[in-house]
Design a protein that fits this description.
mainly alpha
């Protein structure tokens, strides 16, 4: 029995590889094909889900086989609008639990396959797609990160004021290559004395980077809106 189950899982995994290596079309429709393969398994569905999410990013497609069109543009819009927050929220909850890798994928597959809110294969396959494109997968088991109180954090920020300001400068000046910016930031991190200071400085760098991306995104949106008005 165990050998048969193992063969079944291996067959589905190979089918997933074959699809990813040759498929052409929208990712939602490819996800539907993958979903139908995973559902061929019974209790081992989570193993196939794990295999898919762990390996899909490394597989390049020849795009020689066009997958069948399953989702209309209206369906994709409605599914994302109605169920996107539910899918995101469930993934967020599972990530916060700090599960081991096997249990994470077991719970994730239960959500996709058994959740009564996701009615029908199309919606379940769309949930698989929505998780597939999420930057928080594949899943990694993480060690405990450093925590500190607000007062300590604020005090270290004061001590690192000049380096935080320099980091802001590095993030925003033009460079020919991103590696230049990255190497400058690494050198800046290595200048501070302790790991706690490195953590605070890195936190500030991440905050500054997020703000820059938000500003750029808003400028692009404003430009698009302005061009729309002109037309």
């Amino acid at each position: 029995m165990e050998n048969r189950k193992k063969r079944d899982v291996e067959n589905v995994q190979q089918n997933i590889i074959n699809i990813l290596k040759s498929a052409s079309g929208d990712k939602e429709d490819i996800a539907y094909r993958i979903y139908t393969e995973i559902t061929c398994l019974e209790e081992e569905g989570s193993e196939a889900l794990e295999f898919f999410l762990e390996n899909s990013e490394q597989i390049e497609s020849t795009e020689e086989k066009r997958v069948e069109k399953i989702f209309s543009e209206e369906e994709k819009y409605q599914y994302a609008k109605t169920y996107g927050k539910i899918i995101d929220g469930t993934l967020e909850i599972l990530l916060k639990k700090g599960l081991n890798k096997k249990q994470f994928y077991v719970e994730l597959w239960k959500f996709i396959y058994e959740n009564p809110i996701l009615e029908g294969d199309k919606l379940k396959a769309f949930a698989l797609f929505y998780i597939w494109i999420d930057v928080r997968v594949p899943y990694y088991e993480m060690e405990s990160g450093m925590k500190m109180g607000n007062d300590e954090y604020a005090e270290i920020c004061k001590e690192l004021f000049e380096k935080i300001r320099k980091a802001r400068f590095i993030l925003n000046i033009p460079t020919e290559q991103k590696t230049e910016r990255a190497s400058r930031l690494i050198n800046l991190l290595n200048e501070v004395k302790s790991q706690r200071e490195q953590v605070v400085l890195m936190t500030q760098i991440l905050n500054l980077s997020d703000k820059s991306e938000m500003i750029i995104s808003q400028l692009i949106k404003d430009k698009v809106l302005e061009e729309g008005k002109i037309q």
